[in-house]
Write a structure and sequence with these properties.
458 residues; mainly beta; Neuraminidase; eight-stranded antiparallel beta sheet; 1% helix
Amino acid sequence: MSATRRQILARSGALGVGIAFTGALSELFAGTAAAQDLGHTGYGPLVPDPNGLLDLPKGFRYQVLSREGDQLRSGEGPVPSNHDGMTALPARGGRVHLVRNHENRPTAKHAVPTVAGLTYDPAGKGGCTALTLDSCNNVLTVVDERVAIAGTAVNCAGGRSPWGTWLTCEETEDKAGTNGYTKDHGFIFEVDPADPHRTGAVPLTAMGRFQHEAIAIDPKRGIVYETEDAFLKPFGLFYRFLPHKPLGGVGSLRAGGRLQAMRVPGVPDLSTIQEPGAAFDGIEWVDVPDPLAAQTPVRLQDFGPKGITHAQKLEGCYWGGRCVYFVSSFARSADGSAADHYGQIWRYDPSARRLTLVIVFGPDTDVQLPGESPDNICLAPSGGLMVCEDGNGAQHVFGVTRAGEVYAMARGRQNIGTPDAPEWGEFAGVTFSPDGRTMYVNCYTPGTTFAVTGPWRR
């Protein structure tokens, strides 16, 4: 889940970091495994890695599972570039399927290799790869690594389904003829890591064509919530998709449904709401006139005289308890937002039809390092959050407790072992194994997938 830039603040020293916010941070863990916070404030100082890849606390160790440019175990081609959103799903025999997005644009160095039956648009360089992992004596082995979907574009985030598949989202709305594409882009695709050909490369068109970021599924009703990451005005919308076959299993979302956008009465722009705890009842859902955006982007379509509610940079989305949470990572009036903020986290309760602002982040601390520009977030099984940093200089994975205390969990060494690269590699796609014993995380560039093990439940 993506969150605000500039929300983790430096306190003192390289490892003394904190988080500035107003609101109830513990709210983020409602109804999740992380609700049982162990209360720890970290695992101790980071120990420099003699191999120059990943610094971790004492007692933890990492494995490099996969690196950009190496050959896929399947022999289909090189490991693609730009490792981004990721999930870990249970597989047969206690194994784990790791499904990894590749946020490839037309300029990507290593495209996702095209594979018959798994390629949507041969001109698209994005997609997903799937790794199958086995564990013996606490050593992970990659027993398979292959293309799961190809020919898509800018696969940023997504979300897992209740039936064990990954919904990968294209964060673009380029149409056929743009960048050499032969088909329209901006869709969600379902990926079955156990059998990618079972899901193929079929766009879930009824779920809309726009700059998708992430999704979350109501496990009881089967409603799919979707965020739109629109950086510049006109800003994105928060959507729900009402499937014709809710919770119908693999392939059921192809049956279609209704796409609707959220309207908060009297609030055309969420950035204007600055007080944590502010709540709005009677939330309305308005049918999207043209989900395929054949002529007009969805966020610019006519939603009637009352209009529709927009927000800048809608990113992360997850289900907790009986509600869906979503993030506006920042808003700037200089970009056209009605007000400024450094991050909001919202909760929507479908039973009460109530939207509540849970947390507002701030202030701006770009000049203070480390602790800049958090991106992907996941709930940690031992309690709290894990946050991937995406900023300047050294990059970290930070842990955040329910009390709002932040500690450094991992630090990437410059260029992740490739001295010819000009920048530090940001982290992305942090996720945990189904048993909670392994943290998986990507370095975005050069694309590297790590597995981190250690005393998580200490």
